């Protein structure tokens, strides 16, 4: 899904001049993902998918921003089980 944000005339140029190294599209994506997570619209697994990371990296990402998961969904527990199972098989256990 692509989302477009309309800014007032001239604002994009001012923002880019003040912060030329900031990836505003990425920052908007992060902001949306965190807000959906706060509202419990998505879980940590979905947040990770949106941001291109696994659930464990998503937890670290959130912790650095002082955001914490409330509870895991059944899907997230299942995904953890599958990931751990794969890791064990890869290690020959």
Description:
By secondary structure, the protein is mainly α. The chain has one domain (17-90). Helix content is 62%, strand content 0%. The chain contains five helices and no strands. Helix 2 runs antiparallel to helix 3 (44-51) and helix 3 packs across helix 4 (55-64). The termini are far apart.
Task: Provide keyphrases for this structure.
0% strand, mainly alpha, elongated
Number of domains as seen in the coordinates: 1
Output mean pLDDT.
Answer: 89
Helix content: 55-70%
Q: Which structural category fits the helices and strands?
A: mainly alpha
Number of strands: 0
Q: Which value, in Å, is the CA radius of gyration?
A: 17 Å
Taking pLDDT < 50 over at least 5 consecutive residues as the criterion, the unreliable ranges are: none
Could you state the order of secondary-structure elements as H and E? HHHHH
End-to-end C-alpha gap: 40 Å
Biggest sheet details: none
Individual helix count? 5
> What fraction of residues sit in β-strands?
under 5%
The gross shape turns out to be elongated
Task: Indicate the topology.
Layout (H helix, E strand, L loop, with lengths): L10 H8 L5 H15 L5 H8 L3 H10 L9 H17 L3
Helix pairs in contact: 2-3, 3-4
